[in-house]
Specification:
The complex is a heterodimer of chains A (about 375) and B (about 120). With about 375 residues, chain A is an alpha+beta fold. Chain A contains nine helices and 19 strands. Chain A is globular. The chains are: A alpha+beta (about 375), B alpha+beta (about 120). The interface of A and B includes residues 33, 41 and 227 of A.
Chain lengths: ~375, ~120
């Protein structure tokens, strides 16, 4: 275990401790894995009402200047990203492997500035890579003085209607600058749970006060990393470093939808030749969802066909509190990707029957207007 | 009947030469909501310290160790449908397995209730 003395703390660290959070090391930060409500209770609360997550460990940055230079590194078409819009995109390596997944948006009115949110574990690498490859053309400015909170769940909008009504006019994947409790915040209507919700970037100095204000609302409970993981797994969303990494392309990771059509036609993204070939051949492994009975299948469990031949591996798995059973995602050989295919997952050496299942495992609940 | 405890948070209650084994309420609380328990087959034998069962919470799988040497003579099939019994009634309906003791003197090396309370304090 990492030395807790060396772990970084988010601006909400003392609040997590005060709330009874069980603190664990995650991506170099001392973070709450759960609060006294527990992972199961937190998960169900978020799906029923609203949950507040501290995601301040994630990397925030602004980018200004030549957008073509940034676009060359990712899969989005930034010319299609209008004011107030957000897109999910991928930072690729030269082999078409996924360096990271990130959100890019244009929340700042009248400003040609992009707002980026990247994963905590990869933020230093991501920002160094973007800086190195846009040098002299664009400017990346890391934002280290803002916390990031996520308010997620079907009643998140009711909370925001009370505290920041203007934000409720946004639909899924829109972003803007708003005032919340007298503070300038950047809000996007998005998240990592499959539910409707908001991600809110707040000046560090105001973060605890606003977090407490949100937690004081009847609908809201604090949610730790444990439920964050089970919620995103049920939503079929990838966890970087587990469900995709430098050695998996968007084709393998079933994230080809994040590659803009125009970019695909132009073939002007890193690893375009590899990805074009995979799209044509349709022979590479692919990420799929699996449901099974009984024992949860965890990361690293082997997936076998009914003759016992190992044909894949689980990359994320656990118990889905809303599904009320074990769910997993993993990579299998192309012949086994069809929904309904019966396979086995080897859990502690014992073959557990599993079925290839369409993701998300629970229906998305995004607000699309 | 005597109940003893291990440092790994198993409890063992002895009745004659058969002992019932489970995990303590403290352990169940630390694990959080139990969603699955993998139990051994009846007839299998274990040495003290061997992994004889696995308890799964939402987040992780944890091994459960045999507190003594013995043969499995019964398992709690109720946990198959109701794993939450481990959280609700860890030392009652949430028991895991019955061991036929191979060496009753091994019990003497385990903690009594007061010692266990001090261990988790």
């Amino acid at each position: 275990m990492a030395d807790t003395e060396l772990l970084e703390k988010t601006p909400l660290h003392a609040l997590h401790v005060e709330l009874g959070g069980k603190m664990v090391p995650f991506a170099g930060y001392d973070m709450p894995v759960q609060y006294p409500l527990g992972i199961m209770g937190e998960h169900k609360h978020c799906r029923a009402k609203a949950g507040l997550f501290d995601v301040s460990h994630m990397g925030q940055a602004r980018y200004t200047g030549d957008e073509a230079a940034l676009e060359a590194l990712i899969t989005a078409d930034l010319s299609e990203l209008g004011a107030g819009e957000q897109k999910y995109t991928l930072l690729l390596n030269e082999r078409g492997g996924v360096r990271d997944d990130l959100m890019v948006s244009r929340p700042f009115k009248g400003e040609e500035t992009l707002f980026l949110v990247v994963n905590a574990a990869t933020k230093d690498d991501d920002f160094a890579h973007i800086e190195a490859n846009t040098s002299g053309k664009g400017t990346l400015t890391r934002i280290t003085d803002r916390a990031l909170l996520a308010l997620q769940g079907p009643q998140a909008k009711d909370v925001m209607a009370r505290l920041c009504p203007a934000a409720c006019e946004m639909v899924f994947m829109q972003a803007g600058v708003f005032e919340l409790d007298g503070v300038e915040v950047y809000i996007s209507r998005s998240g990592y749970t499959g539910e409707d919700g908001f991600e809110i970037s707040i000046p560090e100095a105001d973060a605890v006060r606003i977090a407490k204000l949100l937690l004081a609302q009847d609908e809201v409970e604090a949610i730790g990393l444990g439920a964050r993981d089970s919620l995103r797994l049920e939503a079929g969303l990838c966890l970087y470093g587990h469900d995709m990494d430098e050695n998996r392309t968007p084709v393998e990771a079933a994230l080809i939808w994040a590659l803009a059509k125009t970019r695909r036609e132009r073939g002007d993204f890193p690893g375009a030749d590899v990805i074009a070939q995979q799209l044509e051949e349709k022979t590479c492994q692919k990420r799929i969802g699996l449901t099974l009975e009984g024992a949860p299948a965890r990361e690293g469990a082997e997936i076998a066909d009914k003759d016992g031949n190992v044909i894949g591996v689980v990359t994320s798995g656990g118990f889905g509190p809303t599904v009320e059973g074990p769910v997993a995602m993993g990579y299998v050989e192309r012949g086994y990707v069809k929904v309904g295919t019966e396979l086995d997952i080897l859990v502690r050496g014992r073959a557990r029957p599993a079925v290839v299942t369409k993701m998300p495992f629970v229906p998305n609940n995004f607000y699309r207007g | 009947m005597t109940t003893r405890y291990t440092e790994d948070h198993e409890w063992i209650t002895v009745d004659g030469d058969v002992a019932t084994v489970g995990i303590t309420a403290y352990a169940a609380e630390q694990l959080g909501d139990v969603v699955f328990v993998e139990l051994p087959e009846v007839g299998k034998t274990f040495k003290k310290g061997d992994e004889f069962a696995v308890v799964e919470s939402v987040k992780a799988a944890s091994e459960v160790y045999a507190p003594v040497d013995g043969e499995i003579v019964g398992v709690n099939d109720d946990l198959d449908g109701e794993p939450a019994k481990v959280n609700e009634d860890a030392t009652g309906g949430g028991w895991f397995a019955k061991f036929k003791l191979a060496d009753a003197s091994q019990l003497e090396g385990l903690m009594d209730e007061d010692a266990y309370k001090a261990h988790i304090a």
